[in-house]
Amino acid sequence: MAEDAPPIRFGILGCAEVARKVSRAITLSPNTTLYAVGSRSLDKATKFAASNGFPPHAKVYGSYEGVIEDPEVDAVYVPLPTSLHVQWAVLAAQKKKHLLLEKPVALNSSGGKCPLMVLTGSVPGVKPDLDALGALGDTGWYCVRAILWASKYELPKSATALHKPTYNDAGVILACAASLSWEDDKVATFYCSFLTNVSMDIIVMGTKGSLRVHDYIIPNQEKEAKFSTSSNSNWVELSIGWAPNPSDNVFYNDLPQEVHMVKEFARLVGAIKYNNSKPEDTWPVISRKTQLVIDAVKTSIDNGLEPVEIKG
Amino acid sequence: MAEDAPPIRFGILGCAEVARKVSRAITLSPNTTLYAVGSRSLDKATKFAASNGFPPHAKVYGSYEGVIEDPEVDAVYVPLPTSLHVQWAVLAAQKKKHLLLEKPVALNSSGGKCPLMVLTGSVPGVKPDLDALGALGDTGWYCVRAILWASKYELPKSATALHKPTYNDAGVILACAASLSWEDDKVATFYCSFLTNVSMDIIVMGTKGSLRVHDYIIPNQEKEAKFSTSSNSNWVELSIGWAPNPSDNVFYNDLPQEVHMVKEFARLVGAIKYNNSKPEDTWPVISRKTQLVIDAVKTSIDNGLEPVEIKG
Hints:
By secondary structure, chain A is of the alpha/beta class.
């Protein structure tokens, strides 16, 4: 996508809280613009556009259809409840729109083979009554994604839920945990919950070093990414300390992380639109792997915590 | 124990590497003194005493018996391999010696009901060929102890090993993991290994706050205890950061942590010796609970990862 190409025009389906954050990111990203928003309530959509930095010429629709049928819309962001993801993703795809989907892709991967680009948003906040996966599809999605990242996106061979999840009265998962294992001796566990105070920790341990991140979904500070690493640490004489000590690192971002996500997405869309590039499958493959692991954990929960094999 | 009471006289069984650290702690603790060391090799014992700060009048024995039969020895520190713990702990107890045992107490709790005081040391470093529990009884002991601490020493109701452990050729556990669950919805998982680079992390999450410690066994710096806490954190507007942010805390210690352990142990011994106090059961109860959980994890491993009920 050339530097001087027009920005990618976004349409947003619905006025979810998370859409406010992504709208801000679309405004901040140098290669995108807010172009349309649709809600079942025209009034809601109008207020959303007015309070979220939409330019004066932006389109406001009293339906989702209005957005996906607008020929000027390049890409659609879908922050709808999970149970509606696939339906609207498919409809938007049929209209040749590029898709930025909120996680999880779907309630299960059989319905989630979306032909176009799929990225994931990065803000918890789900309506449990519309999403049986609950915490597993929300905070659990981040856990699984982070684990896949740490394993270089190699799918684990099996997933086992660790104990009976905590459910709400409607049967939605509020907290659960699972163990993943690979062909070699790599293992991972994660715990995801709507019930704990804000916590988002990754610890990765290898034979030669380790990594710790404590705010990997939403950073403590918007433009700072902090992490701690240790490399070939050992005990000092008499085991009275470490050498070398772990190092604390801070990476400063000029733009918030979700702006980078939107920018990357728009770069891919622009490559297709202006350079006739073929769609890259990097992100859809990662999303599909994430969903496969989530599915396996859900199956393990449903099958009394039995290990479930994961096939790519 | 009065301020002017004579120091508690320690005898040490064997010259394990870990005994060097505890010898240093006994020297640094204001209420203890190094009094005797025994090894199957008199030469080894002599060299150990000379290079580890034993006073000139200290006794050196060419056997373990010499130490436990010395009437001037108040307390015996037992850093022998796990398979020898119970045998020498019982022999020392029969001689009315107070006991400071290296973890784990025993290969299983049926052999570990030691009648006197039991504390645990705090340094990894085990000879796998003499200890079938391997990483589970060593680094896993710390994990379980930390988890019990975080649960106010309430025993979990069950333990489930998470996957097949990694073994060495002699069948010793080199790495394993387990999940623990309580009557309420509390859950914990731990991973212990001899194969990873130095890593010792606790993350505790509650409904209202969280705690993180990354060097809970041996601190990065000997006289610093660092931890991070968050309390009632939430997202700031548009989920672009946390408020309040987690706080990083450093607690400075005048004495290294193992000196505090030795000092507390000697305080208890002194109370019995000089004040006719009854033995406190705080530490033996905690050690026994730790061993019960370790036992349950081992049983789960041996029974194909089945959940194992824990009874106090």
